[in-house]
Structure formats: structure tokens, C-alpha cells
Design goal:
By secondary structure, the protein is of the alpha/beta class. It contains eleven helices and 16 strands. Helix content is 23%, strand content 25%. The chain starts with a strand and ends in a 6-residue tail after the last strand. The structure holds NADP nicotinamide-adenine-dinucleotide phosphate (NAP) and zinc ion (2 copies). One zinc ion binds at residues 41, 43, 63, 89, 159.
Length: 349
Amino acid sequence: MPSSKGYAALDAQSALAPFTFSRRDPGVTEIAIEILYCGVCHSDLHMARNEWGQSIYPMVPGHEIVGRVIATGSSVTKFKMGDVAAVGVIVDSCRQCAPCNRGDEHFCQQGATLTYAAPDRVDGSITMGGYSNNYVVDERFAHTVPANLDLASVAPLLCAGITTYSPLRHWKVGPGKKVGLVGLGGLGHMALKFAHSFGAHVVQFTTSPKKKEDALRLGADEVVVSSDANAMKAHANSFDFILDAVSAPHSLDDYLALLKLDATMTLVGLPDTPPTFGVFNLITRRASIAGSMIGGMVETQEMLNYCGEHNIVSDVEVIPIQKINEAFERLLKQDVKYRFVIDMSSLKG
Ligand code: NAP
Ligand code: ZN
Ligand code: ZN
């Protein structure tokens, strides 16, 4: 492989800065891709700043990758040179356990390999992510992209897309169901597009009154600003399902009180401090709090194909990589509509 360059965090405090490193040549079942676009997930910010206490430096973040195939191993069947390939949050797993065998590699019993800041199963190096010019990955962990979709707007599907598609499918969101979505950010706006597309009655909860119009345009049937106690109360005991995609610490109580008997609130947001809740709101409606993480390779491809068929992509603001630190700051101010995507051609300048 030609030498790789990207932007890295060298520790939890410093801004991301230019960084060069090397990747191995692709093995027989692997492809090398030139990265065209990489989305900016809030997890990248949590990780770069070691907010979950598991970071490894130097760290090249990025796990919403779309690129073009520049090399293929001799046994690769899914891709040929020049094809578009997409890579998400995991790039390997044991490939032998029960979850791996059914395509749920993200639940690998030995732990899946993350796209960055994780020990690589092949050569023991630490994986470096998509804020860079290239990637080497086994074809099993790369996806094909429907030809009708804009590639910059596809990138966020690889994390924000699958992380919301999967729980909405698992908890059978569809016609006749009333669904609440908490937090209108990168994940939230994809949840909104999917829940609307699946035919549910969708209520978007937001802390940002200025996002109301956008929420309606993105598919919400109703929008509630969560600081409006009366508007919240009007929805008491009425939801079949609530999905929480908030990145900052908060209480779940105001939302648990909105669940119907036997309904579920599923968390995908990962604040550094866990959300709080009172047990009374659970016992009085036999409610469940659940969690969900990305999706397996089979479901990720299913989600991409669904997006192709229904013309669903992310709403993106494309930035040069030189603006990544500014983008992180804007994420913290809830100032993104609704996903930053890095145009990797900016690395060449
Ligand atoms: P994001 O684009 O920054 O969106 C987060 C949203 O949370 C904001 O837009 C905002 O929505 C809401 N929010 C922010 N601060 C808040 C506060 N103090 N109180 C209440 N609401 C607040 O982030 P993202 O990329 O969508 O990621 C969201 C979370 O999911 C992150 O923690 C990320 O690490 C996690 N994640 C989990 C998985 C998984 O597999 N489970 C995968 C990817 C990401 P409003 O302005 O509408 O209130
Ligand atoms: Zn992510
Ligand atoms: Zn496994």
C-alpha cells in the first residue's frame, strides 16, 4: 500500500492534526479502497477525547466510509477495481461464533474489531479509521452502494443509518405504531427518515426549537420541544416505542412517562455519563429500557438497498478535512444539519 495520510488525535486534549502512517497490503479476501467521503459521528468526538475511557492514541477516527476500490485480493468476489465500497463501524470479527454465523458480527462473542482504535486481528496493529485517504478491509465487512445515491450523502448511512434502522426494524416500527424519537442530530434525523418511511406516526422530541421546521420536513408528524411540560404531558401513556439518540447526559423520566403499557424505550445515544431514570415510571406500565448497537453485515447491506429503493440518504454538510476541529465544536453546540461529511479530496491539497 502507498503510505496513508489522514488526521489524528495524539491525545485526549489536542486538536486533530495531519498524520501519516502505513497500512498492510490487502490479503486474498481483502480490498483496498481510496476513501472519497467519511462522515463525522459524535462517537468520533467521544473517542478522540477519551470520554468512554477506552481510547488508544494516535487515533485516526472515522467509521462512515465511502470509497473506490483500488486493489483486490485474488479471492475477492464482491468487488472489482473501480467499484464503490462502503465501510462502517466494524471491520472484522471471529467469523465462527453463532452471532457471526448469522450475520450479526457486531455481537461477535469474541468482540468485533472496530474500524479505528482497536487491535487488528490480521497484523496486530491498531486500526486507523476513515479520516484518511485509504483503507484495507475484508470484503465481508465492506458493502455495495446503490448506484442512484449521492456518495457524500451515503457515508452517514454506515453508522447513523444502520444504528437507527436496526432498532426500528427489531421493535417492528410501522403502520399503526406511535413512535417517539429523542434528539435530532446525525442519528436522530436518520431515525426520522426511516420511521416515517416505515409508515409509523412519528413524534420528534428536541431541545432545539429552531429545528421544528426541519423535523416536519424530514418526516415528523408532530414535533415537541422537550422543555414544554404541557406539550410533553399531552403525549402521556401513548407511545409504542421511543428511540433515544442523545449524545449528552439527561434523564429518561420525562420520556418513560410517555410509554404505553408494555412499551419499550431503546437507547442508542452513548453519553459519557449514563442517563438517569426512576423505577416508578417502569413498574407502573411494565415498560422496558433497551439498548441497540449498529447492525450486522447482512442488515447493513439490507439498509443500504432499502435506501436505494426509497431514495433515502443523509442531509449533509460537506467539509474539507482542515475543518474537522471546527466541526467537532459545532457538534457540541447542536449546530449541524444533520451530518458533517469530510470530502477526502481535501487531503490532497
Ligand atoms: P449528534 O449529531 O451530535 O446529535 C446528538 C443530538 O442530541 C443533538 O443534535 C441534540 O438534539 C441532542 N442533544 C445534544 N446535547 C443535548 C443535551 N444536553 N440535552 C438533550 N439533548 C441533547 O450525535 P450523533 O452522531 O447523532 O450521535 C448521538 C449519540 O449516539 C452519541 O452519543 C453517539 O456516540 C451515539 N452512537 C451510538 C451508536 C450505537 O451503535 N448505539 C452508533 C453511533 C453513535 P436536539 O437538538 O434535537 O435536542
Ligand atoms: Zn458512529
Ligand atoms: Zn464471532
